[in-house]
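pinning this so it doesn't scroll away 📌
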Amino acid sequence: VMNLIVGVNWAQTGNRMTRTEYFDKYKDLAIHEMVRSEIPASITLAQGALESADGNSRLARHGNNHFGIKCHQDWYGKKIYQDDDEKNECFRKYESVEDSYRDHSDYLKTKSRYAFLFDLSITDYKAWARGLKKAGYATSPAYAETLIRIIEEFDLHRYDMKGLSDGTASKAGKHPH
């Protein structure tokens, strides 16, 4: 089955990335961020895929923003504007996808409303997904369930196990599921 994409932008950027291709392309980056910041790779990958339409959204293609992170008052970097909950909202624009992944980790690590997530087991993706929703990461009422479904459908939890074996801090035993 072939996807037929209509529109000028698609002709300029080539074919749409599939969800499987997205995970194959960015799994090592998510594992690296897990080791660096203690955020489950499965959560990072599921959020990245969901928020960026598998790397195909305008924010991802033109702003390297894979997580839908808005500018907020403490952002002094480049900006890209797009309608979201309101018209013409300011989103962070990055030099690379790697910068987007790093900023996503740093954002969760430094915003107090997400601090409680780091008390959860690094392998408990369900608790992380529900916690992100509870902390207000996204406005969709089904956000946690959507992340969990993506993680389970694509077996992304295996990347959490890889992150642990690659040297992530031993938070796995803190709150076993």
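📌 and the second one:
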Amino acid sequence: DTDREAIIQRCREKRMVLNLVGTQKDTSRKAVELAKQHTEMYASIGIHPNHLFPTYIDEEESQFMSREENFDEAYYEELYQSAPDKIIGIGETGLDLHHIPTDIPEETILKKQKEVFLQQAHFAERHGLPVVIHVRNATDQIIELLESLRRQIQGTVHCYTGNWAEAQNYLA
């Protein structure tokens, strides 16, 4: 936030095209608002699996307490309709069994993550958009979900922690 304009200028000088990835309602809206202001910026909107339950996230670059949100389809539909030419993907969505609350059974967490992933995948399908799939320590489960969809979806797998054999499953 403190040096946003300088960063944008450096990106312009390097002729970069940016995908601003939302991970919950407010960051998705901010991504769309910023994309509307700059021709070289686009947005992906969605809810990250870490934001489905309150969880303390401690990564090398940041620490924070995630807040609980659900995929509010009406909200994301309104957001999409506000800038369909600037929204190029849905997500970050997916499964994360690395950062999970310790006071909630893993089965409960995984069930909700799967439901929300499918909601976002169907939203992406309706709008002809690719997905940004976050998967951490849940490759078998996400492959199973992808195979359950009516059609193959396109997108990118982000935060991939698997091997080449598992990657081939995504390509298939």
